[in-house]
Design a protein that fits this description.
Blueprint: H1 5-32, E1 35-36, E2 48-49, H2 52-67, H3 72-93, H4 98-114, E3 121-124, E4 128-131, H5 135-154, H6 160-178, H7 182-202, H8 211-231, H9 240-245, H10 247-262, H11 275-281, H12 286-309, H13 321-348, H14 355-364
Antiparallel strand pairs: 1-2, 3-4
Length: about 375
């Protein structure tokens, strides 16, 4: 019951709270001035409140705290998540420099690590498990900060971050439940319920944004859930599954960072080289873009689930030809989808906004102080 019914109840409870509280956060954002104003590098064309992440956090916390036992590591994860959300809310209302945000993220990541939540070992296919020793602490903090910023970068279009995280969290809930990781299954289900309910207000045309308070919280919790629900297991795909589930935002962020480094732009800056910006540049609508990325993310999640549940080996190193073929077919579909969306759409057809123009505009606006949405 713990690994099946309670996660479902957690998702429902989180969704109800988000549906009830999001309108309140919209009113509050208008009162305190936490409003996203249109600009040349933003997609939206009207002022939109950006404290929706507060509703996501509160929706998640109700079932997370109610159902979970007093596990120090889990408590540390939740506490760190609340702190990083508060950091994001401060940034949404007052504005913080990238350095201050990074230092704050490291401090927040140190909370669950100090409580015992670490990537203490890695299990690789054909290699086995090996301990990381003292490097586990540094590696875990880097993992938290990386995923926090990856999801933060993803939050650049109506419903994009909430939908992608909702799909990923649902996948983690299923995998964690199958591994007997009840705590992680509950956390992931609550996160999924909160995200999917938030789409009621955030899907195009959005009436509110989650802001950094929401996106950093989602990234933080996903990072922690991946550790406690999957990476700490002895499964041979323990290190692979989270990377597959989060492949789309990881690829997007990696692509953008490489572009910025190549053209001498600051990594923490903002431009229009994200996947969703490029899809708009070739004429796709926001809805078509977001739904296509949802489908891509769902396909990668399906591959992760297949790697977990398809019996391609008998547990003793002997491969089952039939099931292996099924797994390879799913992987091939995922690869084709990736090639289509990244290579064809990004490289061959995107001609309306050359990168050199982005660089020139960025340098021309180098005196601007306010950072836009990613």
């Amino acid at each position: 019951m713990t690994t099946t019914l309670i996660p479902i109840l957690s998702a429902i409870a989180a969704a109800i709270v988000v549906l009830l509280l999001t309108p309140v956060t919209m009113w509050l954002a208008a009162k305190v001035g936490a409003v996203d104003v249109p600009s040349a590098r933003r997609i939206h064309t009207r002022a939109i409140p950006r404290l929706g992440g507060v509703a996501i956090v509160l929706g998640f916390l109700l079932p997370a705290i109610w159902f979970l036992p007093a596990d120090p590591a889990v408590r540390g994860l939740i506490a760190g998540g609340v702190l990083v959300a508060a950091l994001g809310v401060v940034d949404d209302t007052m504005g913080l420099s990238p350095v201050v945000k990074l230092v704050g993220q490291v401090a927040c990541a140190s909370v669950p690590v100090a409580a015992g939540l670490t990537i203490d070992h890695i299990t690789l296919p054909f290699v086995g498990a090996f301990d990381l020793g003292a490097a586990a602490y540094v590696l875990t903090i880097i993992w938290f900060v990386a995923i926090v910023n990856i999801i933060n970068f993803t939050d650049g279009m109506d419903g994009l971050a909430a939908g992608v995280v909702g799909i990923g969290a649902t996948t983690f809930a299923i995998i964690a439940a199958s591994l007997g990781r009840a705590d992680a299954a509950i956390l992931a289900a609550a996160l999924a319920g909160a995200c999917l309910a938030f789409l009621r207000f955030n899907f195009n045309p959005a009436r509110t944004f989650m802001g950094d308070g929401g996106s950093m919280f989602l990234g933080f919790m996903l990072a922690g859930i991946a550790i406690t629900g999957v990476m700490k297991s002895a499964a041979t795909v323990a290190i692979v599954l989270p990377l597959i589930v989060l492949a789309i935002p990881i690829l997007d962020t990696s692509f953008v960072i490489m572009k910025r480094l190549k053209h001498g732009l600051p990594v923490y800056g903002a431009d229009k080289s994200h996947f969703h910006h490029r899809f708009l540049a070739i004429g796709w609508s926001q809805r078509r873009t977001v739904l296509s990325i949802y489908a891509w993310a769902a396909l990668m999640s399906l591959l992760a689930l297949a790697m977990r549940f398809v019996p391609y080996t008998d547990g003793h190193g002997n491969w089952n030809a039939g099931w292996t073929a099924v797994l390879c077919a799913i992987a091939a579909v995922g690869l084709v989808g990736a090639v289509y969306l990244v290579y064809v759409l990004e490289i061959l057809k995107w001609r309306s906004e050359p990168v050199v123009n982005i660089v020139r505009r960025h340098r021309a606006r180098s005196g601007e102080q306010t950072a836009p949405r990613h």
